[in-house]
Every structure is written in structure tokens, then in C-alpha cells.
Amino acid sequence: MPKFDVAKHDLERLVGKEFTVEEWEDLFLYAKCELDDVWEEGGKIYFKADAKDTNRPDLWSAEGIARQVKWALGMARGLPKYEIEKSDVVVYVDEKLKDIRPYGVYAIVEDLELDEEALRQIIQLQEKVALTFGRRRREVAIGTFDFDKLKPPFYYKAVEPDKIRFIPLNSDREMSADEILEEHEKGKEYGHLIKGKPYYPLLVDREGNVLSMPPVINSETHGKVTEETKSIFIDITGWDLNKIMLALNVIVTALAERGGKIRSVKVVYKDFEIETPDLTPKEFEVDLSYIKKLAGVELSDEDIKDLLERMMYEVEIVDGKAKLKYPAFRDDIMHARDVLEDVLIAYGYNNIPPEEPKLAVQGKGDDFVDFENAIRDLMVGFGLQEVMTFNLTNKEAQFDKMNIPEEEIVEIENPISQKWSALRRWLLPSLMEFLSQNTHEEYPQKIFEVGKVTLIDEKRETKTVSESKLAVALAHPKVTFTEAKEILDSLMRHLGAEYELREIEHGSFIPGRVGEIIVNGKSVGIIGEIHPQVLENWGIEMPVAAFEIFLRPFYKGSFL
Predict the structure, then answer these.
(1) How many CB atoms lie within 10 A of CB 15?
(2) How many alpha carbons lie under 13 Å from residue 218 in its C-beta half-sphere?
(3) CA-based nearest residue to 335, from 290, 293, 300
């Protein structure tokens, strides 16, 4: 979770009211943060805030916390209002950036009065947004510039690397693009995002002055904001237009909280034009009965309206429903429970009296878990070793290394690591990874896993479903399809199920040595010998035979 520093005096300047340190400890909860540390420096008190929501980048700065506190305390109500004045500034986007870094959005914020703390918050916010929400600049990279030193219009161009030379930020000499990627601190850290591309992204003004080379580094001469800066030009690039628009909304509204005036910029693409930023409020509707049922406290319609207005919603109650508008810098309202959470934050979790359960219940093991454990015992009885692997994985493991086309999969929006960026849709890749990490051990290696996979299901409220599966992998020099089938035969006999195999083609298995497992006319799994290309992808030198089946169909004789 993001952690960031804020000064007590700066927070109170933004809120317009002073509080004790103890009071701030509670106030941080309104902004979904915890007070992680307090210290004194130069006679001033500083806090380390620990954000507990990776979907609320608008709360990762002094401006965001102060705004949330003002509303929660009733010092302001309803939607925050931000005026946007059109400018005559234009940015032209090069179509050759389509497969490199295709989108950019921009804004100007004028009439700023910056001091050391305000400048620190601007830099910290853009770093935190790009690092966490922007997946280490891969999805979102942010540049801020002293607008009064620039000469619009601007051009977001695709430029051949050997034609790029400028002085990068915090450097005192001109460097080529390759020198920046190889020698500069930020080039070493983020250069991999563009290295090897035929063109590098470059943002320049009308005179060809380099502002930045997104997503790596800004220019020292034209890309530095100081306490003397009065107007800031904001540049945000990435792959998803909606995502970078949200990041832009977060940055411009934070600056507006410091008295800045927002001006829009026209962005011209080959096929369309847009004006950015767009702070049009978003809309959502929720049944008040849902809020009342799950809140755990008695709330009237007016209570709910009051609490939501203190969380920056515009609320209209019609026929038992709350029609809501909420700020454009938020993108986390996906379900009624997200609105309920805001209601309870405004109410105060500490104000909800604890209650003992009214009904005594007796704990009991889940019957399906007992069934899974019985399958585990059966596999161990067949001489297999159980492994337990992670539900989190990545697309490369699930598809590329398994030699199959990529399909829709449940992905993590802001993963800490790309290695753990998705939920697995089948188990065999996990077993292949296990075998790849144990090539130094003796063979035969006979392993199995009973575990969960997550599949897309548009009919369900969550659009996903979790299924239990069994996967078996056998690795040794003489392993064959027949050996895996013998284990499958024994398993099916114990389950009291009859099955047949239907020959299919599957990229993970050797053609002619793979079959779909059919029970009562329905597909329940797959069996076969792993394709040599898959073995090579995982660095496994032994042949592998394997099968994988769903377990739920066999629970309590579901097929029988």
C-alpha cells in the first residue's frame, strides 16, 4: 500500500482548521489512511500516512486528505466544484506512437503560490500515482513543467533514438537517448519500457525544445518545476486513455485545492480530438434498502443522504433509490457495497456499537472441503506427492509458456509485481513451474494439486466464478500417456463415474496424444503428454504426462 509524508501545518492550512496529533490520528481514517509515524523536523510536525486503498490515488497527498477531511467534518458538502477554462494550447500526437506509447493527456494549472511543502507534495503525488496506480510508469507516467518557460503548441512525437539529445533532469550535460537509458538513474530504472523500440516518445515545443522523453525522464532545462513556478503544464502518457485521464484528474484537482485555476488543452490525434481534463461527474444508483440492511446501524433516508454528501456525492432520492453523482477523480465505485463503505466511513466505524451474535451457531466442516481432502488422500495413495502453489500468476505462465493463445483472464488492476498479476484459470502451468524449479531433484517426480481456479462468468454478479480442480503431472524418462490414464482410471472408479476420451488438438500437448475427458456427455478435463515446446519453455528436460479435471461435478455423485 502507498505510504507518503505530509506536514501537519500544511494539512491544516488546506483544511482551514488546526487539530491535535491525536485528533489527526482519527481524521486520517476518513481518507482511508492510517497514521503510521509522527516526527518533528525543523520545529514542524510531520506524519507518515499509510493508504489502505490502492484504488483511491486522489487520497495520496496532503491535498487529497485535507479535502476528504473538510467534507467528512461537514465543512463542505456535495460535489466539489472545479471550473475549467479553455486555453488555446494544442498538443499534436504522432500516429507512429500507436505501438510504442499511444496516448497523452494534458492540462495547465495557473495562479499557483508554491512553497517548499507544496512543491514536495506535487512531486510525491506524481511519483506515487505513477509507481502504484501506473504500475511503475508502464500504464501511467507523469511530467510537470513550468508552463511560462514553454512555447506551445506541443508535439508528442515518435523520434528515432539516434536523433535524440537533451539534458535530462538532475544532470548538467547533454546526453543521447541511449546514454540516458544506460547511465542516468531514471534511465536505468525505466528505460526497459521503451528500449529496443524503433522510435522513442518525445514531447517537444514548437521550437523543438525537449520537455520530456516519456516515460523515462524530463528535461532539466524545460522540465523542472520550482517554488517560483506560477503555472504548471501537466503531461500524462500511457496505454489506456481512461486510466491516464483519471490520473490527470487527480493531479489537476490536487493543484486546484491549492488555489490553482485549471485550463484545458486540446489534444489532436489522427482520428479524433479531445479536450483534457474532463471533470464531468460520474453517476451511480443504489437502493437505499441495501444500505439500510447491511449498515449495521439505524439510518433514515435523510441520514444516508447527509452521510453521502459528506463523502462528496451529489444525492437525489427518488422512489427508494439514491441517484448519485461523484467526482471525476474517483474510479472505485463499481458496486453498491462501495457506496455503503463510504456511508460507514462518514458515520465512523468507531461509532458503530459492537453486538454479540443473536443466534448461537456451531462450527462444522464444509462437506465439499471434506470431499477435496478425500481426493488428496486418494492421490497420495496412488504414490503421488501433493504440492500447493499460488492462485496468483501471470499471462505468460498461463498462456505463452503453455503454447496456447491468450484468452480472457481475471487480472489484478494494480499488482505489486507482474509475476503476480492475474488469477490462474488452470492448474497445470503451476505444476509445470514446480517441475521447472526441481530439475535438480531425482526422478521420477509424480505430483498433484487440488486447488482453486478463477474463470470469467458474465452471468454472475462478480463476473467470475471460483472452481476446484485436480491436476496431476508425471515426469520421468519413460512416462507415457498410458501411465497418466491409469491414474485417471483408478480415480474415476473410486468416484463411481464412467468416462470416455475424445481426441482434440491442444497446444500444450503432443498432437495425437491428447484427449478431452467426457462424463455423461460433458467435458470435465483434459489429459495428454506435454508438448516438447512447452517443456522447453519451462526448461524441463524430462517428458511429462498430465491431466486436469474439475472436481465439483463429482461431488456427491453430481453426474450419477
Answers:
(1) 19
(2) 21
(3) 290
C-alpha cell at 53: 486503498
- From CA 559, how far away is CA 467, in angstroms rounded? 16
CB 436 within 8 A of CB 389: no
pLDDT exceeds cutoff 60 at 498:
yes
Task: Give the tens place of pLDDT for each residue, 428-482.
Answer: 999 999 999 998 999 999 999 999 999 988 888 888 899 999 999 999 999 999 9
DSSP state of 58: G
Task: Note the helical H segments in 257-388.
Answer: 288-295, 301-309, 336-347, 367-381
Q: Give the Cα separation of 130 and 147 in Å (integer).
A: 21
CA distance 91 to 426: 45
Does residue 5 have a known ligand-binding role?
no
Distance between CA 204 and CA 133 in Å, rounded?
A: 26
Percent of the chain's residues with pLDDT above 90: 83
**338 known ligand binder:** yes
Alpha-carbon distance 19 to 400, whole Å? 55
Element (H, E) at 541: none
The pLDDT score that the predictor gives to residue 559 is: 44
Q: Does residue 413 or residue 504 have the better pLDDT?
A: 504
pLDDT at 560: 37
d(Cα 302, Cα 292) in Å, to the nearest integer? 12
How far is residue 259 CA from its own chain's centroid? 31
Other C-beta atoms closer than 10 Å to the C-beta of 83 total 9
For residue 186 the three cell numbers come to 531514471
Instruction: Give Cβ neighbours of residue 230 (< 8 Å, ≥ 6 apart).
Output: 110, 111, 112, 113, 148
Contacts of 318 (CB under 8 A, 6+ apart): none
Q: pLDDT tens-digit profile of 211-239?
A: 999 999 999 888 688 899 999 999 999 99
The answer to whether 162 is annotated as binding is no
- State pTM to two decimals: 0.72
Note the pLDDT of residue 30.
93
DSSP string across 431-497? HHHHHHTTTTS-S-EEEEEEEEEEEE-TTSTTSEEEEEEEEEEEESTT--HHHHHHHHHHHHHHHT-
Q: Which three cell numbers stand for residue 401?
A: 509458456
Q: Report whether 56 contacts 48 (CB < 8 A).
A: no
Question: Residue 251: what pLDDT?
Answer: 96
Q: Is 413 annotated as a binding residue?
A: no
Count the neighbouring beta carbons within 10 Å of the beta carbon of residue 191: 21
CA 318 remoteness from chain centre: 34
Q: Which are the contacts of 458, defined by CB distance < 8 A and separation ≥ 6?
A: none
Name the residue among 303, 324, 327 with its Cα closest to residue 315. 324
User: Residue 164 corresponds to which cell in the numbers above?
Assistant: 535524440
